Amino acid sequence: MASKIKHPELADRGRLQIEWAEKHMPVVAKFIRERFAAEKPLNGIRVGAVLHVTKETAALVRTLVAGGAVVRLAASNPLSTQDDVAAALASEEGIEVCAWRGMSEDEYFDCIRWIASWEPNIVIDDGGDLHATLHKEYLDIAARVWGGTEETTTGVIRLRAMEREGVLKYPAIAVNDAKTKMMFDNRYGTGQSAIDGILRATNILLAGKRVVVAGYGWVGRGIAIRARGMGARVIVTEVDPIKALEAVMDGFEVMPMKEAAKIGDVFITATGNKKVIRREHFEVMKDGAILANAGHFNVEIWVPDLEELAVSKRQVRPYVTEYTLADGRKIYLLAEGRLVNLVAAEGHPSEVMDMSFANQALSVEYLVKSRGKLEPKVYNVPREIDEEVARLKLKAMGIEIDKLTEEQKQYLESWKL
């Protein structure tokens, strides 16, 4: 099929949104795009991408097309698509889009199958659903894929499980694990955008409230820091003793979720795991507790338990569902338990996605150049790509740094003082 979108009439508005994003994404939309346009390193390559269809993703897709690629794009979340951006991209040469806001689960996976059955040379994924679909339903096609990339922690976890089980059919680059992605996108991007989504959905005051952050990886760190910066009293829950100790040393309260559930006002999950907040926690929560998820899938807040406990529910604001329990307590779930930053807000700021998608573009180029040379394993982003992204970002910001002298290089490489 050709592009399948819902609102083609929004294309002009979408182009303005993309223009705004690209002004704040000089690494991927200027430096890399200009080189790609001149060198055409992706000439004739079919790139299948399952990503959040946002104005920032549009900047990446346009850069891939400038490099000679033909791109098919589908959504990586049923509720995260910006319909105006989807319309704008679908009107451009070399791009086909299957995405709209409010997709059913069947429609969501139909679009992913549309990409898989296209026999892409390179696949880009956010969450692992494209990788998994290829390996479960299109094994012959998966075996012919040159390589893939993965944008988020959840997807990398799935890829590494596939590698451990010996079923991975092509080399995959864990873009999420690049320092210029994880340390900035996960921490500063999600930290800001998750809080932004919660505030847009609720308009509550964070100052003075107890905010419970589940998980203290880079995403949890970013959310905890931003919440504290707005005056919240932040509690962290963890299963990893090292991360828990780090949270304590960073000045946060740390306790089990069963205790935090009794006193928290706002709960934000950021673990990549399932059933992080479940029945036993809902049963002891305060009246008026607010629940939000910043993990990729809608499994961290276990909504089936909440549905069973509730005697009624209603939509009280856009993206806010009120669940009334048998004893009269009300619990508020944001964005249906899906990614609050992309459902109730616009996702990460363009400036931070500039680095994430620069890693994606350069990793795609690397996979094309490395065709036939890599085993079907999960690889880190090559260090030279990570450092190039940082160098270009600093250049865009007008910042210069020192360089080692030859004497200093020799000193660092020698065991003799």
Describe this structure as you would to a colleague.
The protein is an alpha/beta fold and 417 residues long. The protein folds into 2 domains: 223 residues, Rossmann fold (3-Layer(aba) Sandwich), CATH 3.40.50; 156 residues, NAD(P)-binding Rossmann-like Domain (Rossmann fold). Helix content is 46%, strand content 17%. It has an 8-stranded mixed β-sheet with strand order 9-8-7-10-11-14-13-12, sandwiched between helices. α9 runs antiparallel to α16.
Task: Compile the SSE list and pairings.
Blueprint: H1 11-23, H2 26-39, E1 46-51, H3 55-66, E2 70-75, H4 83-90, E3 95-98, H5 105-116, E4 122-125, H6 129-137, H7 139-142, E5 147-150, H8 153-164, E6 172-174, H9 179-202, E7 210-214, H10 218-229, E8 233-237, H11 241-249, E9 253-254, H12 257-263, E10 266-269, H13 279-282, E11 289-293, H14 303-309, E12 310-317, E13 320-325, E14 330-334, H15 340-343, H16 350-369, E15 378-380, H17 383-396, H18 406-413
Parallel strand pairs: 1-2, 1-4, 2-3, 4-5, 5-6, 6-15, 7-8, 7-10, 8-9, 10-11, 11-14
Antiparallel strand pairs: 12-13, 13-14
Helix pairs in contact: 1-3, 1-4, 2-3, 2-16, 3-16, 5-6, 9-10, 9-16, 16-17
